[in-house]
């Protein structure tokens, strides 16, 4: 492997910087986007689906079909990721939330969520089940030029 002989291979990019995001910064960035990805394990396989979402009171919520993979599966430990990439500036950020999604059954919360302005799910069919994701851990990173 040629690159292993190159003394500069392990050095960080010139004038590039990265910084961890605080939980408050992560939540602020989550609220600026509408599409993220939910990842979960099912029967030994990893699934990752894009979802349209909204944030509310420390939770991440998205709609799905009751018959679909997300509506039927007990999701267990899962991860939710949102990011922004600006290739021309060689910059961006990513937020990763980890926790256990659950179906939303609380009627007051459902009224609140249905009353919020959000994009329709991109997938076809009836997407009437709200899944709530209250992260047990949230982290993020911002990268760009220094």
Main features:
146 residues; mainly beta; Pnp Oxidase, Chain A; nine-stranded antiparallel β-sheet; globular
Would you mind describing this structure in some detail?
The chain has 146 residues and is mainly β. It has a single domain (27-145), classed as Roll (Pnp Oxidase, Chain A), CATH 2.30.110.10. It is built from three helices and nine strands, in the order βαβββαβββαββ. It has a nine-stranded antiparallel beta sheet. A hairpin with a 2-residue loop joins strand 3 (45-56) and strand 4 (59-64). The longest helix is centred in the last third of the chain and has 9 residues, at 107-115. The radius of gyration is 18 Å and the shape is globular. The model has no long low-confidence stretch (mean pLDDT 84).
CATH topology: Pnp Oxidase, Chain A
Report strand %: over 45%
**Order of neighbouring strands in the sheet with most strands:** 1-9-6-5-2-3-4-8-7
CATH class reads Mainly Beta
Average the pLDDT over all residues and give the rounded result. 84
Query: Mind describing the biggest β-sheet?
Result: 9 strands, antiparallel
CATH homologous superfamily label: Electron Transport, Fmn-binding Protein, Chain A
- Overall helicity: 10-25%
Which descriptor suits the 3D outline?
Answer: globular
Number of domains: 1
> Which structural category fits the helices and strands?
mainly beta
Q: What is the CA-based Rg, rounded?
A: 18 Å
The ordered H/E elements are: EHEEEHEEEHEE
Annotated CATH architecture: Roll
Q: Total strand count, please? A: 9
């Amino acid at each position: 492997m040629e690159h292993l002989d190159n003394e500069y291979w392990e050095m960080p990019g010139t004038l590039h910087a990265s910084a961890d995001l605080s939980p408050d910064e992560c939540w602020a960035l989550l609220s600026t986007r509408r599409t993220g990805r939910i990842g979960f394990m099912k029967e030994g396989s990893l699934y990752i689906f894009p979802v349209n979402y909204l944030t509310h009171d420390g939770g991440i919520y998205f709609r799905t079909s009751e018959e679909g993979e997300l509506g039927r599966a007990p999701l267990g430990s899962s991860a939710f990721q949102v990011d922004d990439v600006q290739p021309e500036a060689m910059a961006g950020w990513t937020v990763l939330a980890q926790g256990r999604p659950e179906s939303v059954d609380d009627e007051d919360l459902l009224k609140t969520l249905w009353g919020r302005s959000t994009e329709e799910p991109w997938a076809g069919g009836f997407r009437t089940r709200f899944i709530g994701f209250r992260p047990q851990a949230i982290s993020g990173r911002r990268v760009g030029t220094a």
